[in-house]
Structures are given as structure tokens and as C-alpha cells.
Design a protein that fits this description.
With 89 residues, the protein is an all-alpha fold. The protein has helices spanning 2-10, 14-27, 30-38, 42-55, 58-66, 70-80. The longest helix is centred in the N-terminal third of the chain and has 14 residues, at 14-27.
Length: 89
């Protein structure tokens, strides 16, 4: 099935790209998700951003934002503006 999905995605079918992203996410294939984002799959960007937010990976959020998924930039800003650590005595 993924070969057919890849063929459809290569022909510009966004639903097939989204499905490939879901399959990559389910299998934990972050490299494939990154490649899909580079191909313009915003759903892959969403999934990568979710992972980055969950782990607090600010650099990854910046990379995802730079790759075209604007919401990652919003999440990055939100995390950067979050509550500051309490001062230590």
C-alpha cells in the first residue's frame, strides 16, 4: 500500500502525503517525517512539531518552522515566553 501511496504523493496527492506522514509517525520514523515536510507536507510538520513540543526540543521547532510549518514557530515562541525558572538562593 505504501508504494501506491508514494506514487500518488509523487503525483501531488496531498491526502496520500498525509497518510504517509501518519504511517511514518506511527512507526516512529522521524527521518521520513522530515523528508515529507521537505516535500511540502504540512501534516508531517504538525506531527514533528507535536513531538518537538512534547520533548521541549526548541532547535527542532526552529528547524520545522524554517522548513515551512509556521505553527512550529508559534509553538517555539510560546515555549520561549513561558514562565522563567525561579531564582535560586
Amino acid at each position: 500500500m505504501s508504494l501506491t501511496l508514494r506514487e500518488l504523493a509523487d503525483e501531488g496527492n496531498e491526502t496520500a502525503l498525509d497518510r504517509l506522514a501518519d504511517l511514518a509517525d506511527t512507526s516512529g520514523d522521524v527521518v521520513e517525517l522530515s523528508e515529507l515536510l521537505d516535500e511540502g507536507c504540512m501534516h508531517a510538520g504538525f506531527l514533528l512539531a507535536q513531538r518537538a513540543v512534547a520533548t521541549g526540543d526548541l532547535r527542532e521547532l526552529q528547524r520545522i518552522s524554517d522548513a515551512g510549518y509556521d505553527e512550529a514557530g508559534n509553538e517555539l515562541e510560546r515555549l520561549l515566553k513561558g514562565p522563567a525558572d525561579e531564582p535560586r538562593n
